[in-house]
Amino acid sequence: MTTTFRQRLLNHEPMMGTFLKTPSSIVCEVLGHTALDAVCLDAEHAPFGRMELDSCIFALRAADTPSLVRVPSATPAEILNALDCGATGVVLPHICSAAEAQAAAQAARYGRGGRGYAGSSRAAGYTTRPMSQHKETSNQQTAVIAQIEDVEAVDAIEEIAAVEGVDCLFVGRIDLTVALGAETPDDPVVVEAVEKVCAVAKAAGKPVGMFLPRVADVGYWQQRGASLFLLASDHSFMLQGAASLMGAFEQQTQGQQD
After folding, report:
1. Phi, psi of 250 (to 5 degrees)
2. Residue 9's closest CA among 80, 91, 78, 72?
3. In the prediction, which pLDDT does 254 show?
4. Which of 12, 45, 94, 235 is catalytic?
5. Which of 2, 71, 110, 193 yields a CA-CA distance of 20 to 30 A from 60?
């Protein structure tokens, strides 16, 4: 799955992943036993250090589960770190212009002015892979996903969507809600902005990804061109699982008291 993720993304295949908020390789190993299409390590909002990121990517690679890293910022250093550790792709926060999109896409791939090379990384097979092979494979398989979550990004969406090397536009709907001064992600001004991103991406032939608070909304946004859905997180899995189990327990014990 890790070697085909980018191609599936470019083919607009429906895919569902989740966010990982707990920097734990064991949680990644557990999720590797599921049918998730990808796990996105949230290094922007969760306490991932370099070793935690490395071990989580290792566990997901062992399970052949695509690993995306939402980097803390779209700087070449953060992108390089995630990809050298062996991530399948990067999710780049707060891309607001075509220039920022171009710079980030360039930093994620080998070439003039692009990603720095080290044959000793996990991604390069710890020196066991010829440079030419690794460069070609990496450029073919690395997914570059630009997160659209600012008013400036929506205003410049046509230019951003036209940037070669950006494989997918991912709507950061919660940040977009805050940026637009709305109260909820369902506010009409937010929905209108998301629909604009989808329409422009569709016209440009670019896949669209998004986080949704409700899985019931997937069909609506799939009809508008979205194909990559990162839903829920390991935190919500634990909270929902515990709440469901507690509810079942209370039903049983209430029945005994009656």
Report:
1. -65, -35
2. 91
3. 83
4. 45
5. 110
Please report the DSSP string for 11-25 in residue order.
TT--EEEEEE-S--H
Measured distance CA(130)–CA(12) in Å, rounded: 31
pTM of the model: 0.95
Contact, 44 vs 69, CB < 8 A?
no
Angstrom distance (rounded) from CA 199 to CA 107? 27
Average pLDDT over the chain, rounded to whole? 96
Give Cβ neighbours of residue 5 (< 8 Å, ≥ 6 apart). Answer: 15, 37, 38, 66, 88, 89, 141, 143
Residue 218 CA to chain centroid, in angstroms? 16
CB–CB of 142/84 below 8 Å? no
Q: What is the pLDDT of residues 29-43, one digit of tens each?
A: 999 999 999 999 999
Beta-carbon contacts of residue 221 (< 8 Å; ≥ 6 apart): 194, 198, 208, 210, 212, 229
Domains of the chain as residue ranges with CATH: 5-233 (3.20.20.60)
